[in-house]
Design goal:
This is Response regulator transcription factor. InterPro entries: CheY-like_superfamily, Sig_transdc_resp-reg_C-effctor, Sig_transdc_resp-reg_receiver, Tscrpt_reg_LuxR_C, WalR-like. Keywords: DNA-binding, Phosphoprotein, Transcription, Transcription regulation. It comes from Paenibacillus terricola. The structure is a single chain. The chain is an alpha/beta fold and 200 residues long. The protein has 2 domains: 133 residues, Response regulator (Rossmann fold); 55 residues, Arc Repressor Mutant, subunit A. It has 10 helices and 6 strands; from the N terminus they run βαβαβαβαβαβααααα. Strand 3, helix 3 and strand 4 form a beta-alpha-beta unit. Helix 2 runs parallel beside helix 3 and helix 8 crosses helix 9. The radius of gyration is 19 Å and the shape is elongated.
């Protein structure tokens, strides 16, 4: 299988490439230091799988996955992460990602996961799966929407106009989001939701 690795840390990118290249059935055909370069390489080299760091400059791994999904590209996406935010995982699943793996997993686990994806399966690190299962987003779509707009600095009145709701309804959604997140106020609720990736 032909693989592209996108990771902004050069040392890690080089190490991953060298280790995967030692596998008989895996060939690393390209390396990228950011998401934009990764997209260029994917279109130019047409790999079977792209291994993407979740947080990179210019375009993140999730940005790249979403663009490939929109283009109906055949390259399969595997996300590498140190983060267990459920919002990231949900966004990755919506983008049709085939794998969601921890960076510090043993190389044997990574290569086995790549083979599973190559053969049409999916791969999620067990540690991530447990964390994400336990930490589901408690916010409804509307609460998330309202909290996200509040985080962008909009007042309840402005949010009500934007979403075609009454100001009272917006305040109710904000109050419920604050309660669910066990926050003291909307600022703290926005901070908590952002930290967990629930507003992405």
């Amino acid at each position: 299988m032909r693989v592209i690795i996108a990771e902004d840390q050069g040392m890690l990118r080089g190490a991953l490439s060298a280790l995967l290249d030692m596998e008989d059935d895996i060939e690393v055909v390209g390396q990228a230091e950011n998401g934009e370069k990764a997209l260029e390489l994917i279109h130019a080299l047409k790999p079977d799988i792209c291994l993407l760091d979740i947080e990179m400059p210019i375009l993140t791994g999730l940005d790249v996955a979403e663009q490939l999904a929109a283009q109906r590209h055949v390259c399969k996406v595997v996300i590498l992460t140190t983060f267990s935010r459920s919002g990231y995982f949900q966004r990755a699943m919506r983008a049709g990602v085939h794998g969601f793996l921890l960076k510090d997993a043993p190389i044997d686990d990574l290569s086995a996961s790549l083979r599973r994806v190559y053969e049409g399966g999916r791969a999620v690190s067990p540690e991530l799966a447990i964390t994400l299962w336990e930490a589901g987003n408690p916010l409804s779509d509307r609460e998330r929407e309202v909290l996200k707009l509040a985080g962008e600095g909009l007042s309840a009145q402005e949010i009500s106009k934007s979403l075609h709701l009454t100001a009272g309804t917006v305040r109710n959604y904000l109050s419920e989001a604050i309660r669910k997140l066990d926050a003291k106020n909307r600022i703290e609720a926005i901070t908590i939701a952002n930290k967990k990736g629930w507003l992405d």
